[in-house]
Amino acid sequence: MSPETFAAIVADAALSPNVHNIQPTGWRRIDDATVAAIQAPGRTLPVGDPTGRDVAASHGAAVEGFVLAASLRGLGMTLGAAADGEVARLTVTGEAAADPLALFLTRRRTYRGAFTADSAPAALDALSKTAPDLTVLRDRADIDHVARLNDRASLGGFRHAGFRAELLAWMRLSPRDPRWAVDGLNARAMQMSGLEAAAAGVVLRPGVFKVLDRLGLAGALTGEAAVVRSSAAVALFHRPADEAPFETGRRWHRVWLEMTRQGLSAAPMTVLADDETAAQALADRFGRPAGARVVTVFRIGVAPDGALPPPARRAVADLIV
To answer: By CB distance 3.0 to 4.6 Å, which of 126, 178, 246, 259 could disulfide with 264?
Structure first.
């Protein structure tokens, strides 16, 4: 693997999904046949992800992205034992055919806006067949139930001042922000107008949110129920409870790419897995596979033409160390 090929693969792998778009994975080329994924300094979420599970899943998604991108260039990769200071080590093992999902690596986006009225039955049927770890719910009452659960769990999370501060630090609320197109959650990706973005910057300040919450207004500001209800479906993503988060992240990426393959867009509602009350409510209503946990819940549908935002990503030179 030449330095030029390595850089091209890293550029594609950088488009992998990751928590809050903090992009925690860096890359090191060790020799022509060996590369390592490493933890990028300062790219963690100590409050929102205290155990590091979401960051580990993000690393897994990035490594899966690297393997997929390598397959597009005819390279087969295997994972080996990571050395100290590495998240994972990958080795070129020979030639390989392109993975069928690799073509969709650069097309996948998180879409947080309202979906079209297209119920996409054929696409959802295909998704259900190819992703058995998804429980795809299309009944409008079920979608409404998930929408209300998501709003309650989200409001509970926003009531933690530390969480609000950490989230705000990763939000890019103005195109004038020098990191608008680099990392974090920019207003365009969050489907916010300029006015909504400015308001969010005020609402999330210390003290302001607490006052609004006391007045009963905070829920209206954090809620997403209307957007969730526009979904063609919501899908519960279950994985074995004892699976390493890194491996969960690899599968999470592939499931999302399968949605893209079917012409669908999605956004995760991970708070439904993080909030124990919400996760139990999901299990009570929809069941849970034996020995599994819900990792996230996707809202899924068809995005309007031209609505998918461009990705905000770090420069390849910043990703390679």
So the answer is: 259
Beta-ladder partners of 172: 186
> Using CA atoms, how far apart are residues 254 and 234, in angstroms rounded to an integer?
17
Both 103 and 165 in one domain: the answer is no
- For the stretch 177-229, pLDDT in tens is 999 999 999 999 999 999 999 999 999 988 899 999 999 998 888 899 999 99
Task: Copy the structure tokens of residue 215.
Answer: 């007045």
List, edge to edge, every strand of the sheet that includes 25-31.
Answer: 25-31, 34-39, 88-95, 75-80
Of 51, 227, 36, 69, which Cα lies nearest the Cα of 146? Answer: 227
Query: How far apart, in whole angstroms, are the C-alpha atoms of residue 134 and residue 127?
Result: 8
Q: Do 137 and 181 sit in the same domain of this protein?
A: yes
User: For 4-47, what is each residue's pLDDT tens digit?
Assistant: 999 999 999 999 999 999 999 999 999 999 999 999 999 999 99
Cα–Cα distance for residue pair 228/300, rounded to 1 Å: 9
Determine the structural domain holding residue 291 and report its residue range: 121-301
- Total structural domains in the chain? 2
Angstrom distance (rounded) from CA 191 to CA 187: 6
Residue 311: CB atoms within 10 Å: 14
- Looking at the domain assignment, is residue 306 inside a domain? no
- 315 with 296, same domain? no
Q: Compute the distance between CA of residue 314 and CA of residue 9 in angstroms, rounded to an integer.
A: 14
What is the radius of gyration, based on Cα positions, of the chain?
Answer: 19
Q: How far apart are the first and last CA of the chain?
A: 16
Measured in degrees and rounded to the nearest 5, phi and psi for residue 155 equal -60, -40
pTM metric for this prediction:
0.94
Q: Is 187 helix (H, G, I), strand (E, B) or coil?
A: coil
pLDDT, tens only, 271-290: 999 999 999 999 999 999 99
**Structure tokens given for 306:** 């031209």
Does residue 184 fall inside a structural domain?
yes
